[in-house]
Write a structure and sequence with these properties.
With 212 residues, this protein is mainly alpha-helical. Helix content is 43%, strand content 8%. It is built from eleven helices and five strands, in the order ββαβααααββαααααα. It comes from Amphibalanus amphitrite.
Length: 212
């Protein structure tokens, strides 16, 4: 029996009917990510009961809400760019810009679970670099998103990140032409919990202690 229910609000204007096939709630982050990818303006929130999640999903959009986030780059354009980038594997996603990474870091450090999931739904490169290693959000100590979430004590974000990087579908999105067994061999949880600097209070120890 699920203990967490994620309500999916499509931010529809008052009177508009919800499209068929879009669930009122999900019970896993992977399901949420799939819905967020297909519905760029969607928002989600976790609840302890199905009824609360469904009620949230049925709320009409606030007229004062800002514009929806931009869509992911088109597969053809991004793949063409990746093909000429020093022999990197073609992928429909390119690395986010430095300002984009800075905004993502703020989401992680502030504990914005919804923002983190939405960002990764738009572009998995927020977690996995073009070299198929964990994307670094702090270059000096080589901290990735999981390190920063653990160091800030953001347990919910830690768990979400572990679910996301442990899901082979993340790599299938990055490299849709790869065979499933190749996608399953990505950097995954182990890569994201590797130490940055080798110090006594290493990010790996903090991450595994705080997010297990």
């Amino acid at each position: 029996m699920p203990t967490t229910f994620y309500g999916i609000n499509l931010r529809l204007a008052e009177g508009l009917q919800r499209p068929d096939g879009v669930p009122l709630y999900c019970t896993s982050i992977q399901e949420v990510q799939a819905v967020m990818k297909a519905n760029k303006t969607a928002r989600f929130k976790s609840f302890s009961s199905q009824a609360e999640a469904e009620a949230f999903s049925r709320l009409a959009a606030d007229p004062g809400e800002g514009a929806a986030p931009p869509a992911a780059p088109s597969p053809s354009a991004a793949a063409a760019a990746a093909t000429g980038a020093g022999g990197e594997k073609p992928s429909p996603y390119k690395n986010p810009s430095r300002p984009d990474f800075q905004e993502f870091r703020k989401l992680v450090e502030s504990g914005d679970e919804r923002g983190v999931v939405a960002a990764v739904a738009r572009n998995p490169r927020y977690l996995i670099s073009s070299g198929d290693t964990p994307a670094l959000l702090r270059e000096g100590p080589r901290h990735n998103s999981l390190h920063l979430a653990a160091l800030r004590g953001r347990d919910a974000v830690c768990r979400t990140l572990l679910e996301l990087v442990g899901d082979p579908r993340l790599f299938q999105r990055l490299y849709p032409d790869d065979a499933p067994e190749v996608s399953a061999g990505g950097c995954g949880v182990r890569g994201c919990t590797e130490d940055g600097d080798e110090v006594d209070n290493s990010p790996r120890r903090v991450a595994m202690a705080g997010c297990s």
